[in-house]
Amino acid sequence: MSRDSDAVDARLEQVLSDFGSRLGVLMRGYRLDRHGIDPADIEQEVRIRLWKAISRDRSGAFHASYVQRVVATTVIDALRRAEVRATEPLPEDDGESGQLPDEGISPEQTASDGERMEGLKRCLAEIPERRRLPITLHLQGYSLQEIADVVGTSAEAARKLVTRGLSSLKTRLRELGYGEFDD
Description:
Elements: H1 2-29, H2 39-56, H3 64-84, H4 107-126, H5 129-139, H6 144-151, H7 155-175
C-alpha cells in the first residue's frame, strides 16, 4: 500500500513540476482575492483533485488542458461557495424567541390574518381527504411530482386533485366572504 501511495505522490510531483508555473499563472489570472478567496486554498484543492485523479488512473496522461480544467472547475466551485456565504452577520440574540419583529403590521391586521387562517383551515377540513392532502402540500410549496410521490399517484392525477381541490376551496372561501380569487 505504501508503494502505491509513493507512486501516486511521485506522479503528482511530476505533474506539478511540469505544470506548476502554469498553475500559478492561471490562479493569479482569476484574481481570487477580490472575492475573499485565498489562492493557497485553491492550490491545495487542485493538488487534492489531481492526486485523486492520479490515484484513479495511474497510466493516464495529464496534459496542460486537463490541469487547466481542474484549476477552472476548482475556482468555479470556490466562487460558488463564496456567493453562498452570508455577506452580513446575523443579528445578535437579544433574548427573544427567534421571532423577527413584525414592523408595520398592526394588531388588527394580525388578528385579521389569524381569522383568515382559521377560515382556511375550516374550509380545508370540509374538502374530501383525497383532495385535502394534495391541496395542503401544494399550498406548502411542494411540486406536483412530490405531491404524487406522497399521495401515491401519477403527477397528472396529482395535478387534477390539486386543481379540483383548489377550485372547491376557492368556492367555499368566496361563500364565507373571504374575497375573490384569481382563477
